[in-house]
Each structure stands twice: as structure tokens, then as C-alpha cells.
Fold this protein.
Amino acid sequence: MNIRDKKVVVTGGAGFIGSHLADVLLNAGNHVTVIDNFSSGSRTNLAHLAENPLVTVIEGDVRDRSLLADALRGVDVVYHLAVQCLRLSFKNPELVHDVNATGTLSVCMESVANSVRRFIYVSSSEVYGSAVSAPMPEEHPLEPTTVYGASKAAGELYALSCFRTYGLQSMVVRPFNTYGPRSHFEGASGEVIPKFVLRMLNDVPPVIFGDGEQTRDFTYVTDTARGIYAASACDELVGQAVNIARGEEVSINRLAALVAQALAKESLRPRHMDARPADVLRHFADTAKARDLAGFSAEIDIQHGVSLYCDWFRSQGYDLKALLAQDAVINWQ
Ligand SMILES: NC(=O)c1ccc[n+]([C@@H]2O[C@H](COP(=O)([O-])OP(=O)(O)OC[C@H]3O[C@@H](n4cnc5c(N)ncnc54)[C@H](O)[C@@H]3O)[C@@H](O)[C@H]2O)c1
């Protein structure tokens, strides 16, 4: 399906990945309606689009069926990204389930009711749990370690069952850990790379949970957004799941060293703390399906991406001391 000059909806479009996806969709001439309740997203993430006549922002909740019924009328493609985050699932698993699983079913059913032509469920590599073999193809067992991962897996099953039951042209896209401009460094939503950068720029050692040998497949956000878009246009992926990742396994110890190098803070030795509960030990994506079917490959390697992100972070003029003071070291509590 050619996704140009279409009417599209991005739920969670004021968030980190959703706002970059909106940029990609707008560059292809689409009319983009963002639905977001601004619980973790922000208007700042969309500020550069404020004057763009192709953008509509609806403040609302994906669990609100009547809001969805109005917003999805006449829409060609829905990208569903709205989410409550992983670390919140330790404290408030019911809310995470409610938004991520029940909310996804609501968006699916309203997409069916409105004859939406394509439905893209943006899932997560967290559905896999730790790798039992690597690299991990889409057929890897789904053994999520957290309620967050389980809620994302439930969303996948709803999206794909709506394809089989109602003929909704749905697909599941599984991004791996994503980083880059607009990523969260605050509170429960905070991600490891922004936290490392913020601490090191304050001359405070980065904190690593566990021995630091756990790995992730870090993917730069502009690649993730391009990958979601490329997958969504691929007819062969309807009814299927596809990984979106760089395809590069990076340990947290190596990541800390790369951030230190990019910021010239090599003298700051990482501080190790107890491992986080249910932390995934190994993530490394098999990216062949995205390449072969959707023609997508991530271009930015971890060293280059960390350096791009550090440059962006420094250009923002943040009050580094104030941000650090707000931040809890043990960010999963
Ligand atoms: N960031 C990553 O590393 C990563 C990796 C894999 C998958 N993902 C997936 O990508 C998607 C986007 O993640 P992100 O990192 O941009 O998160 P984010 O928190 O920045 O964005 C989520 C957005 O959803 C909004 N939202 C939350 N609850 C809502 C509700 N009930 N109704 C409407 N809007 C609501 C938030 O305000 C926010 O703008 C998620 O589905 C996530 O599972 C993210």
C-alpha cells in the first residue's frame, strides 16, 4: 500500500517514537492526526509542527471509545503507539494492562468499525523476554518477563486476531530499544542512554544495574521511525510480525564506555547496583525479514548514534543540575 497523501492517525504521537513517526509521515505528504493524553508525551515534541496544516492534535485517551469513533472516521491508516511504560508496570500493573492491552483492543475494534484500511500495532522486543537463541527471529518464543511485556504481547494478539476474525489489515511491528532526540530521561519513563548522558555531563558516574553484561539492540529513533513506516507500506507483512532494529548487540558496559568517550568523560567509572527485577539479559534482533520484505535496514550504528545524541542533548541548553536533582538513581522503583 502506498502511504502517501493519506489520512493517518498516530496514537501516542506526542511521545518519543510517535513524534518522529509523525515527521516521517508528514514528509510523505500524509495528513496526520495525533491522539495523545500527554501522560508521558509532550507538546514540546510536536512544537516544530505547530504551524503545519497537515497536523491535527487531539488530546484524549485511547480507552475512550466515542473519541476514537469520531477520530477514526475516514482514516486510511492507524499507527497505534500509545503506551504506559515498562517501569510503571512494576508499581501499577493494572494501569499498564488497561492502557496497553484493553486500550489496544479498543483501537482495533474502532478501526474495524470505521473500515480503516491498515492497522499498525507498534509492539516491543520486550514481548520476547531474554533471548533463548540469538539473533532473534520473529518466531522466537514470546516469554515476556514483565507485565509490560505481557501487555504488549496481548496487544499483538488482539491486533492479529482482528485480522483473522474481521479482516482488519493489521500487522505487528516490534522495535528494539530505541534512543535519540526526545527520548525520556525523567522519572519512570527514563531510558538508559539519556540517564548516562545526564549523569556524565554533571560529572557523576553512570549507574549500571547488575554486572552490565546484559545486552540490547539499540536503534536510533530516526531509523526506528523509518522502519515502522517501511513495514506499514509492505503488503506482505499484513497478518504478520516484523522486527525493527539495528541488528547490533551492545552490552550496557560497552554503552557506558561509548557515552563516556563521546562526552570525553572516560575518567568516570560506572557505579554498579543490584540487578533490576526481571531485567532481560540478552536482546539481539534478526533483521532479515524487515530487510527482505520491507527493504528496510537501520543505517546508524551505536557509536555514531551515541555521538549524534550527545551533540543533540548538549544543544538543548538544559539546566543539567536541575534535571539531575529531579532524577532518582534507582529509576525502576
Ligand atoms: N522507546 C523504546 O525503546 C521502545 C522500544 C520498543 C517498542 N516501543 C514501543 O513504541 C511505542 C512508543 O514508545 P515511546 O518510547 O515513544 O513511549 P512514550 O512514552 O514516549 O510515548 C507513548 C505516548 O503514549 C501516550 N499515552 C499514554 N497513555 C495514553 C492513553 N491512555 N491514551 C492516549 N495516549 C496515551 C503518552 O502520553 C505518550 O505520548 C510504544 O508502543 C512502545 O511499546 C518503544
